[in-house]
Design brief:
Blueprint: H1 2-24, H2 29-51, H3 62-77, H4 83-111, H5 116-137, H6 143-146, H7 151-162, H8 168-188
Helix pairs in contact: 1-2, 1-3, 1-4, 1-5, 2-3, 2-4, 2-5, 4-5, 4-7, 4-8, 5-7
């Protein structure tokens, strides 16, 4: 049940996030679906390749493809003049996708018997992989490398799960909320990881 809820929420959130980026870039309907589906399923594909799960298993999630399709279609039908109201929501939905898929990826890795480093890597790849592909396809510098702290929150969530600190649906829900909150706070207050100084 927890697995399905995380899958549903993450897929819908990332599909919406990808569609909003397509709206910002003034893409046609094909661009909407490409970015939406890429964002929604890219992280899971990275995770499956990393853990060693057959990549074709992703096609068995027909109900999630329907969820993504409907989410993208709804965003496409929203009038473009409302874009200014959706910019902040794009970041919010992306944060939800990051959190839910990071937790899901970590749980999947634990179930597969991966070591702690594998759990952290699975959480990071699942949480941020789809967004990274989305940014590349949109011709943007990947957010994971340049913007406010992003993938670190996924990695910390994976660390908590890998260390066995998270047990039960309530703890998982609280962890998801914490990751979303930290991501939004990092955007609000522009928290960044150390960067190389170009000044001399």
């Amino acid at each position: 049940m927890i697995w399905e809820v995380l899958n549903f929420i993450g897929t819908m959130a990332f599909a919406i996030s990808g569609a909003i980026i397509a709206m910002e870039e003034d893409y046609d309907i094909l661009g909407f679906y490409v970015l939406g589906f890429t964002t929604a399923f890219g992280g899971g594909a990275f995770r499956d390749l990393f853990i060693g799960i057959p990549i074709e298993d992703i096609w068995s999630q027909s109900h999630l493809f329907i969820v993504a399709f409907l989410s993208i279609t709804i965003i496409f039908l929203i009038p473009s003049y409302l874009l200014k109201y959706w910019n902040k929501w794009g970041i919010f939905f992306d944060a939800i996708g990051l959190a839910t898929f990071a937790v899901q990826g970590a749980l999947y890795a634990v179930q597969a018997g991966a070591p702690l480093t594998g759990v952290i890597a699975a959480a990071t790849l699942t949480g941020s992989g789809g967004g990274m592909l989305r940014d590349v396809f949109a011709g943007r510098k990947p957010m994971i490398f340049r913007a406010e702290i992003y993938a670190l929150w996924a990695a910390l969530g994976g660390l908590a799960i890998g260390l066995g600190l998270i047990h039960g649906p309530w703890a998982i829900g609280i962890l998801v909320i914490m990751i979303v909150s930290l991501r939004m706070l990092s955007v609000r207050y522009k928290w960044r990881l150390p960067r190389h100084s170009t000044t001399r």
